[in-house]
From TrEMBL, chain A:
It comes from the Bacteria. Residues 170-344 form the Peptidase M48 domain. This is M48 family metallopeptidase. The keyword Metal-binding applies. PANTHER family: METALLOENDOPEPTIDASE OMA1, METALLOENDOPEPTIDASE OMA1, MITOCHONDRIAL. Belongs to the peptidase M48 family. Its cofactor is Zn(2+).
Automatic annotation (TrEMBL), chain B:
Coiled coil: none annotated. The chain crosses the membrane at residues 32-53, 74-98, 104-127, 148-167, 198-226, 238-261, 290-312. Pfam families: DUF898. Keywords: Membrane, Transmembrane, Transmembrane helix. This is DUF898 family protein. The keyword Transmembrane helix applies.
Length: 346, 361
């Protein structure tokens, strides 16, 4: 047997903390021989299938692991075994190469941005098709039931006022080419929501007494608000928002692991900002839907601007504009921006 | 590098008891390359490579953490990590979707998760301990589901009824449960912590939060006074400054109290823990250096948009290693883990079907 080259290092038997100063040599046939430095005794002699090389990492020696559980570790951290497969050192080579590091620094943020901004909304829209109608039906019913028990009280609106709203609602439903068929409008009084309206995935649309009263002299503005809510249902926004949040949480969790305390706080606030961004995008989408359908109904898109202005003046006591940074903390686009959009809509 | 395997006899007998330090030789620059390249590969492979990244990163940190020139070793294979992650992703997705479908189902699932989490914790500790080895001898975790349910769920829930007054005692019990169930080469850890030390640490941490809030309130009042007196600044600016100030204060109080608690408890726990006849431990953490480290690490991460993360991680690991000391007894040199010596194979091949760490991280 002809030993090609002996490497000095240390050897340990399986499950034993005893250390031996040893040399390892590999023959051309792939036989591994480990000898004690002091006594020259053979500590291990194994053929190719009964040993393998450990992971190659920058700055660390590559150990040899025996099937029996023994380990030989070279003293020289830069020593590479000639018999290692070509691919084994590839990751380590990429990790220490300046060019690949530079490429990773540039590409990682770009790809991450692309995944979050383009890919995930796309996948979320596609996943909507996988959710059967009866599940959306159930989602809507369950949520509606919970809201009725907690945040909604029976409407106090006079019958004539309810009839007016219902009339405009029915006219809109008849004239518009809507994908979903079972739209239902409900009116409720709600201290919790105040002047507001919302839609559930099964086509349930709720408008509060407070909002109807706020817009009572402008029926077109009420229609505009209802169209915005229908836009949420047509765009399947509830399901998409869940899919996107799920996607974002998984991406961040898998790529960044669980960094301790402080960084966790940062990533946590990052995903809140991200969810709000998703939400703002969907509000804009619903706004665009409402503006388009207002024109289909032969009404002016400025009706939507009127509704927004009324909401703005009912909520804001001071004319102070929203601070620039706070917009990232909001689930809705700035109201002024939405009014501008409606006024400019062609 | 000097190896201790250099005396005349074979194997090398070190029959004396001696002190030792923990050395960490990882380099921020080197780890940066590993981190960023692995991040890119994980993104490109839609997360699959993240299992390899996790193994390489852990092996890098273990391999660079040495006691008496002997490194720790991480034995998990990427496939084991990948399996655990796939299971975790499926559970998490089902959980999210089910909660979305129905509020009632969400509550039921939360209850279910509460009773399943002790099993996951035990499973994770068992996996991570068994995958850690030093001088070719493995660690192990022996805790069971009932113990974990008691210490991680029942006691914390019951402490709510004591207005959290019992919480420091519960935290002591949790640390005790984890540490006494860890063994190295068949030798179980012995822990003898004091309840009073946990209460003192909690009190000092709470006092620090209170102190920071008092100082911040005084500064706030003075600022409002100045603004009112000079008529400077608008309401919007005041709201913005106020919320920013509140966030910074909240964050600082949180970091300070965490640093105080961590230092005091780690020092106490290490002081009172030993592997009989194998090793005793010592931790010499100090609040100010550790607080400074935490705050500068965070600032660096924020200012570089995350690129300083490898530097921060290496710096923190190096600090924690530098404040850790051991007293090693002769038996440490002749330990034989019977079970491990018998199991043969490359180790992980003997592992069972559920030998995974169900975790996203």
């Amino acid at each position: 047997m002809f030993a090609v080259k002996a490497v000095s290092g240390q050897f340990q038997q399986a499950g034993s903390s005893a250390l031996y100063a040893a040399t390892a040599s590999l023959t051309d046939e792939g036989k591994l021989l480990i000898q004690c430095v002091n006594t020259a005794a053979v500590l291990a002699e194994v053929a190719r299938p009964d040993y393998r090389f450990g992971t190659v990492l920058p700055g660390l020696p590559v150990e040899v692991q025996l099937r029996s559980g023994g380990i030989f570790r070279p003293d020289d951290a830069s020593w590479r075994w000639p018999q290692q497969t070509a691919g084994s050192g590839m990751a380590a080579a990429l990790e220490s190469n300046r060019l690949s590091i530079l490429a990773a620094v540039l590409l990682s943020p770009l790809l991450l941005w692309w995944i979050i901004v383009d890919l995930m909304p796309m996948l979320a829209s596609a996943s909507v098709l996988l959710v059967p109608d009866h599940i959306k039906q159930k989602m809507g019913e369950e949520t509606f039931y919970t809201l009725q028990k907690t945040a909604l009280q029976p409407t106090q609106l006079p019958a004539t006022q309810q009839a007016t709203v219902n009339y405009h609602w029915q006219m809109a439903l008849q004239k518009l080419p809507l994908q979903q068929k079972n739209y239902q409008l409900y009116m409720y009084q709600s201290e919790f929501f105040g002047a507001n309206a919302f839609a559930l995935p099964n086509g349930t649309v709720v408008i509060t007494d407070e909002l109807v009263n706020l817009l009572q002299h402008n029926p077109d503005a009420i229609v505009a608000v209802l169209l915005h809510e229908i836009g949420h249902v047509e765009g399947q926004h509830s399901v998409r928002l869940v899919a996107q949040s799920l996607g974002a949480t998984l991406v961040i969790g898998i790529l960044f692991g669980n960094p301790d305390g402080v960084a966790d706080l940062l990533l946590g606030s990052g995903s809140v900002l991200l969810q709000n961004a998703f939400s703002r995008d969907m509000e804009r989408e619903a706004d665009q839907f409402a503006l388009k359908q207002l024109k289909t109904l032969g009404k002016s898109p400025t009706a939507f601007a009127d509704a927004m202005s009324a909401l703005l003046s009912s909520k804001e006591t001071s004319p102070e504009s929203e601070p620039a940074l706070l917009k990232y903390l909001s689930t809705h686009p700035a109201t002024r921006e939405r009014i501008e959009q409606a006024r400019q809509h062609q | 590098m000097d190896n201790i395997a250099s005396s005349d006899s074979s194997p090398i007998e070190t029959t004396r008891q001696r002190p030792a330090k923990v050395q960490f030789s990882g380099q921020a620059g080197e780890f940066f390359g590993i981190w960023i390249v692995n991040l890119l590969l994980s993104i490109v492979t839609l997360g699959i490579y993240s299992a390899w990244a996790k193994v390489r990163t852990t092996q890098y940190f273990y391999g660079h953490t040495r006691i008496e020139q002997q490194p720790f070793r991480y034995l998990a294979t990427p496939m084991q990590i990948l399996k655990g992650r796939i299971i975790a992703v499926i559970i998490f997705a089902l959980f999210t979707v089910a909660s979305m479908l129905s509020p009632v189902l969400a509550v039921l699932l939360a209850m279910l998760f509460m009773f399943a989490s002790p099993w996951l914790i035990v499973q994770s500790l068992k996996f991570n301990m068994r995958m850690t080895s030093y001088r070719n001898v493995r660690f192990a975790f022996h805790g069971d589901y009932v113990g974990a349910l008691k210490y991680f769920v029942l006691l914390p829930v019951l402490s709510v009824f004591t207005l959290y007054l019992a919480m420091p005692w519960v935290l002591k019990k949790i640390d005790h449960f984890i540490c006494t169930n860890i063994s190295f080469g068949g030798v179980k850890m012995q822990v003898n912590t004091d309840t009073s030390s946990y209460y003192i640490a909690a009190l000092v941490a709470a006092a620090a939060v209170f102190g920071v809030m008092t100082v911040a309130a005084i500064i706030g009042v003075v600022l409002i006074g100045i603004m009112a007196a000079t008529g400077a600044g608008s309401a919007g600016a005041a709201i913005f400054l106020g919320s920013a100030g509140f966030f910074i204060m909240y964050f600082f109080a949180f970091t300070l109290s965490a640093a105080i608690y961590h230092c005091m408890i780690r020092n106490h726990l290490f002081e009172r823990t030993e592997l009989p006849e194998v090793a005793k431990f010592k931790s010499k953490m100090e609040v100010m250096p550790y607080l400074l480290l935490t705050v500068t690490n965070l600032l660096a991460i924020v200012l570089t948009l995350g690129l300083a993360y490898p530097w921060a991680k290496v710096r923190k690991t190096a600090y924690l290693a530098s404040v850790t000391e051991l007293l090693i007894y002769p038996k440490a040199d002749t330990l034989v883990d019977e079970q491990q010596a018998d199991s043969g194979a490359f180790g992980e091949e003997a592992a069972g079907l559920f030998d995974v760490d169900v975790s996203l991280a």
